[in-house]
Every structure is written in structure tokens, then in C-alpha cells.
Design brief:
The complex is a heterodimer of chains A (about 240) and B (about 270).
Chain A lengths: L7 E11 L2 E12 L3 E5 L6 H9 L5 E7 L13 E4 L13 H9 L10 H12 L16 H12 L6 E5 L7 H17 L3 E5 L3 H7 L2 E6 L1 E6 L1 H5 L2 H7 L6
Parallel strand pairs in A: 3-7, 3-8, 5-6, 6-7
Antiparallel strand pairs in A: 1-2, 1-4, 8-9
Chain B lengths: L1 H7 L3 H26 L3 H20 L6 H20 L5 H21 L8 H4 L7 H30 L1 H6 L4 H23 L4 H15 L3 H26 L3 H22 L2
Helix pairs in contact in B: 2-7, 2-9, 2-10, 2-11, 3-4, 3-5, 3-9, 3-10, 4-5, 4-9, 7-9, 10-11, 10-12, 11-12
Classes of the chains: A alpha/beta (about 240), B mainly alpha (about 270).
């Protein structure tokens, strides 16, 4: 199923202030279903903060609205959010496996009890879509950066969310891993009915794959198609001329 | 020695001590897995130290059994420390250290008014003096914790892995976080008289730390932590009886031996 283009996420005048410091102000973003909206900006520009505000983890001012087809609310409660964090608090010595991670996030069945065959089959089938079914029994803290991203994307889409928020890691994922991850994301964008917001550090990917780009530096410095945003002065200031289009 | 072993459980106090070990060690093993996962061993250590202030407050209020004062103070202390932990300051460790020091100092000041000598047992603990009614309380606590684990373990675990990710799944992150530390506070206070302030954190941490050396998966981790906890408890109780030494520290020494054994096994297996 391709995106219907009717779901929309509307952020109006979003501001975040922590301990007297303004991290974000006057953020107005409109993102649509079936579109990949990339959020770019220098380090400390407030990209991850914006995602955390959307998750409700940080108190924010302004309004976040999510409307469904023909402007109707998607459901009575808030939209279902899928979130892919930059990293997890799991070190190499952690015994937690991918199974534990997925079950704890998606099922009420306690992870410390004997496994249920149906649950394992369901998880394996879902992981297969992300080329990660062979990782089910691997310790999650020992996965490579690319493997972890695929597993987290699988977790975020079980079940399929209305809004997918991705906070791409700054480092730790190799080129091949990133390519595979982007391929899966592209597939999701085309097939599923969701709004995708991606915080990205990969300007080349953003240039070729994003539908809309938001350049952030505490506030929205530029917004539009990649060509439009990459041609702005604000973009040159943030990233330097040579990385421009 | 065989004769001594045969006689061991003919004494009522040893039978009660055995039940004490069979109830306390599983409780510790369940809590310990998450404490170690969350990197909170310093936190639970500080919590144990707050028992002194709890007893001191109980004495000040004229209570003959200071347990309610200990429970109340420990839960408030734990929630306060958790609020500070949530601020994610670079100095969180230092702040918890200050809390820990205050817990001990305030307790000693309060108890020194009436003479500290009567409360020294709190430091080392004495499982041999546990009574039947106290065993019932521990049994009820164990059942409550098992039920809580069946309902909330996935949430506790998810929050420990990534609070943001847990929040995206609509889990009540803050509530789960506070519930967990409150439960740790309650269990620590109910057990501290029997295992001692100086040893309680080691007993909480060691079985889980040893299990973490060799387990794969949360199921194996929980199961091995339980096995190591019961093994350390039963062997420690037996060895302390045979050698006429303190029970709590002996259990800790056995637990430490298990930890080092599994550590070496882990190294050997790469």
C-alpha cells in the first residue's frame, strides 16, 4: 500500500526550555503520510530534542496535532508511535537477546518465562522482513550497528505505527549497514501508511531520498525539498559550502 | 561433621533460618537481575544505609518495632534518589554517595542519643533470630514480588534498556521507574535485620552478577540468578553453622566464589 497522503503531523509553535536554556523555539513543521521528512542540522541543533518532545519525554510548548483521513483524528488516543533510538543502554556483557527486547516492547508475556512457540514464530516472521530473523537469539548488546538498527526498525513497526520517528546514530554503522537500513526504510515508506520523520547526519542520503527537509538550529532555519534547502545560506552556514548540492 | 549436619535442622532456630534463606534469597535474586541490568548497585547500597536513619526515626518516635518508620523513610529516600538520578547529571554518582553518607550519619546521630550498642545487630544481621511471624511477612512479600514481576517485568526491563523507546510504546516510564525502586526499598528494609546492612547489597548483587557472566537471554539470567542465590544461601548457612561463624558474611563469600568461578568460565569460553 502506498502512502495515502492524508495523514498529517502538524507541529505549531513548538518550544522546549530546560533549566532556563532554550533548546527549541517557534518550530512549525507539517509532515505528511507517505513522505520521508528528514531533519538535519549541526550537532546540538535540537534534532533529538524535537523527537523527544514528540515522544512526550520532554515538556514542550505549542501544539502537536495528528489528523487522519480528511482531517479526522486517527483515533481517540494519541497516534501510535514507532521510535528508533540512536542507541540502547545495553553493553556487551548484557544477557538480553533480541527476543527479550522485542517481547518486552511488544508483548505482555513475561520474557523470563519459557518461550511460546507462536510468539517466537510471529517475531521471526516479522524480523525476516528486515533481514534480521537470524538475530533473534543473539545478545542485543553484541549486535553490529547496522544489525541493531534493523532490529530497532523491526521493533518500531510491530505493529505498524502512524508516526515513525528515527534518530539515526552519529557513528557506529558502516556504509553497507546504512545502505541496507535506508533500503528497508524506503520499502516501508512505499508500502505502509505512515508519517516518517528521520533525524539524519547523512546529507547524501537526505539529498537523494527525502521528500522534504527541515534544517534545524533551535528553530526551523529552512524547509522544503532537498534542492531548495541545500541551496540556502542557512545550509551553507551549518555544513559549509562543499557539502552542498 | 556428618553428625553435625544431621543435627543441624533439629534446632527450631535453624529451621527458621533455613526458611528465611529460602524466602530472602529468591527475593534478592529477582530484584538483583534488574538492579545489575540498570547499573544501580551503588543506588541499592545507599538505600541499605538509609535503614539506620529509619531505625533512628522509629526510636525517636517511640516505636518498639521500627519497621514502619524504616519502610516509610526508605521509600521516600529511594524516590528522592530516583528523582535525582533522572536528572542525568554527570555527578549522579557523587550525589548518591552524599545521600548514602547522610543516611548513615543521620542514623548514627539519632541512635547515639539513646546509645548505639542495641542496634549493632543491624549492621551484621542475624538470620538465626528470625521468628515465624517475620517469615510469614517475607513469604507474603515474595508472593507479591513474583506477581509484580509477572505483570511488570517486561516494562521494568524495557525502561532499563531505553526510557525513550519504552515511552514510545506508551509505557508509564516514570511510574514503573518509581515502582521498581520503591519495591527494592521495601524488600531491603524487610530483610536488613536478618542479613545486615553491611552485607545486604552484596547479597542483592552477587547472584545476578554471577548469572550475567554465563547466561544468555533474560530467562536464563533470571533462572541462574535464582539458582546461584539459593546455592549461596544454603551453602553459606550450612558452612556458618558448621564453623560457628556469622551467616550473612558466609553467604556473601560463597556468592563471591560463584561470581569468580563464572567469571573465569566466561573468560575461558571467550
Amino acid at each position: 500500500m502506498s502512502g495515502c497522503g492524508l495523514h498529517c503531523l502538524k507541529m505549531t509553535d513548538i518550544g522546549v526550555t530546560v533549566g532556563g536554556r532554550t533548546l527549541l523555539e517557534n518550530i512549525n513543521i507539517h509532515a505528511h503520510c507517505g513522505e520521508l521528512t528528514a531533519i538535519i542540522g549541526r550537532n546540538g541543533a535540537g534534532k533529538s530534542t524535537l523527537l523527544k518532545a514528540l515522544l512526550g519525554e520532554i515538556h514542550h510548548g505549542g501544539k502537536v496535532e495528528f489528523s487522519g483521513h480528511a482531517g479526522a483524528p486517527v483515533r481517540n488516543k494519541r497516534p501510535r508511535i514507532g521510535y528508533v533510538p540512536q542507541s540502547l543502554s545495553l553493553d556487551e556483557s548484557s544477557p538480553a537477546t533480541v527476543y527479550d527486547l522485542l517481547v518486552s516492547l511488544t508483548s505482555a508475556y513475561p520474557v523470563f518465562l519459557p518461550r511460546r512457540r507462536k510468539l517466537v514464530q510471529r517475531l521471526r516472521a516479522h524480523l525476516e522482513r528486515f533481514n534480521a530473523d537470524q538475530l533473534l537469539d543473539q545478545p542485543a548488546g553484541r549486535l553490529s550497528g547496522g544489525e541493531l538498527q534493523r532490529v530497532l526498525l523491526a521493533a518500531a513497526t510491530l505493529p505498524c505505527p502512524d508516526l515513525l520517528l528515527l534518530d539515526e546514530p552519529v557513528s557506529g554503522v558502516d556504509r553497507a549497514g546504512l545502505q541496507e537500513f535506508y533500503g528497508l526504510l524506503e520499502e516501508l515508506r512505499q508500502r505502509e501508511d505512515m508519517v516518517i520523520l528521520l533525524v539524519s547526519h547523512d546529507l547524501e542520503y537526505v539529498r537523494t531520498h527525502a521528500d522534504r527537509v527541515v534544517l534545524l538550529d533551535k528553530t526551523v532555519e529552512a524547509v522544503g525539498s532537498p534542492e531548495q534547502v541545500f541551496a540556502t545560506e542557512a545550509f551553507s552556514r551549518a555544513f559549509g559550502q562543499k557539502e552542498g548540492v | 561433621m556428618l553428625q553435625a549436619l544431621g543435627e543441624m535442622f533439629t534446632y527450631d532456630f535453624m529451621q527458621r533460618a533455613l526458611w528465611g534463606v529460602l524466602l530472602i534469597m529468591p527475593l534478592f535474586s529477582l530484584l538483583g537481575t534488574l538492579i545489575v541490568n540498570r547499573g544501580m548497585s551503588f543506588f541499592s547500597d545507599a538505600l541499605g544505609h538509609s535503614a539506620l536513619t529509619g531505625v533512628g526515626l522509629g526510636v525517636l518516635l517511640g516505636m518498639t518495632d521500627q519497621t514502619p518508620a524504616m519502610l516509610l523513610f526508605a521509600v521516600v529516600f529511594a524516590l528522592l534518589m530516583n528523582a535525582i538520578r533522572r536528572l542525568r547529571l554527570s555527578s549522579t554518582d557523587t550525589v548518591i554517595g552524599v545521600f548514602s553518607a547522610c543516611g548513615v550519619a543521620l542514623g548514627l546521630v539519632l541512635l547515639s542519643r539513646t546509645g548505639f550498642s542495641g542496634y549493632q545487630a543491624l549492621l551484621i544481621g542475624d538470620i538465626l533470630s528470625i521468628t515465624n511471624s517475620q517469615l510469614w511477612v517475607l513469604g507474603g512479600t515474595l508472593i507479591a514480588v513474583v506477581l509484580l514481576w509477572l505483570l511488570c517485568f517486561n516494562g521494568f526491563f524495557a525502561v532499563s534498556v531505553s526510557p525513550s523507546l519504552a515511552r514510545s510504546r506508551s509505557l508509564p516510564v516514570r511510574w514503573l521507574d518509581d515502582l521498581f525502586v520503591a519495591v527494592v526499598a521495601i524488600v531491603v528494609m524487610l530483610a536488613i535485620r536478618w542479613v545486615g546492612l553491611l552485607m545486604i547489597n552484596a547479597m542483592l548483587i552477587l547472584p545476578a552478577a554471577a548469572a550475567r557472566n554465563v547466561a544468555r537471554g533474560m530467562r536464563g539470567y533470571t533462572f541462574l540468578s535464582l539458582v546461584f542465590a539459593l546455592f549461596s544461601g544454603l551453602l553459606g548457612l550450612t558452612l556458618s553453622y558448621l564453623n560457628g561463624v556469622a551467616t550473612g558474611p558466609t553467604i556473601v563469600l560463597v556468592g563471591a566464589a560463584v561470581f569468580f568461578g563464572t567469571f573465569l568460565l566466561n573468560r575461558k569460553n571467550g
